[in-house]
């Protein structure tokens, strides 16, 4: 496989076995925030493994504290090292670092990342793909999910994933109507979850407590899911089903995204 700008990293203690679970995300640490379901399933499975695609190079990230004087090139190196460490701890099968800028990812006419996605999906043949939610508020996240959808739509049906999730990062999905949101029980091994989040010191150093926020959101999702029943799980992460966008290639991504907003409007209207 020849990636346009990136490279493949294989952790020293990589999990062998078929890659059943694949996350395609924008930035280093997005995966550890949003695809913990796939990470845990790959970590504990005796037969299958988990792989990760990180699309951007991390050069434009905010920096303060010990990293405040770092150049873009220095930050890129740090973020690569952090992501590789997370892959080691989580025993990922493989890590694909595509090294595009956020500007390139947001450019709808730039198909290089899309073509990389196609190559990776065709080689790994994952059954489950996790990516960003089409309801996310981060422009680069939206740039990635649009390219992922475009890539998968270009594949024959038999080469497409059986399951396709859009996960929460820069906008929680707790507000989605219950019948349309997917909840993952991620109660297992909180220690591992914290370890793979804590390696991203360059992001946490500036005062962004991503570990506390991500773990807290998972506890919040579990507690506030049902008002009239005892909690079934300790920690929950949410996603939405993106498979309808594959089943119907003519379905507008914008139209599908707004259908979740319309469902919420109807529910609020009914309650009032």
Which terms summarize this structure?
globular; Rossmann fold; alpha/beta; 272 residues
Find the CATH topology.
Answer: Rossmann fold
- Assembly type of the shown chains? single chain
Specify the structural class.
alpha/beta
Sketch the major β-sheet: 8 strands, mixed
Q: How large a portion of the residues is in β-strands, by DSSP E?
A: 15-25%
Q: Reading side by side through the largest sheet, how are the strands ordered?
A: 1-4-3-2-5-6-8-7
Count of discrete domains: 1
Low-pLDDT segments: none
So, the CATH homologous superfamily? LmbE-like
Protein described:
With 272 residues, the chain is α/β, with parallel strands linked by helices. It has a single domain (7-271), classed as 3-Layer(aba) Sandwich (Rossmann fold), CATH 3.40.50.10320. Helix content is 43%, strand content 18%. It contains eleven helices and eight strands. The chain has helices at 30-34, 36-44, 72-90, 102-106, 112-124, 139-153, 190-198, 201-204, 210-223, 244-247, 253-271, and strands at residues 7-9, 18-25, 48-56, 94-100, 128-132, 163-167, 181-185, 236-241. The protein has an eight-stranded mixed β-sheet, with helices on both faces. Helix 6 (139-153) links the parallel strand 5 (128-132) and strand 6. Helix 3 packs antiparallel against helix 7 (190-198), helix 5 packs across helix 6 (139-153) and helix 7 runs antiparallel to helix 9 (210-223). The radius of gyration is 18 Å and the shape is globular. The mean pLDDT is 93.
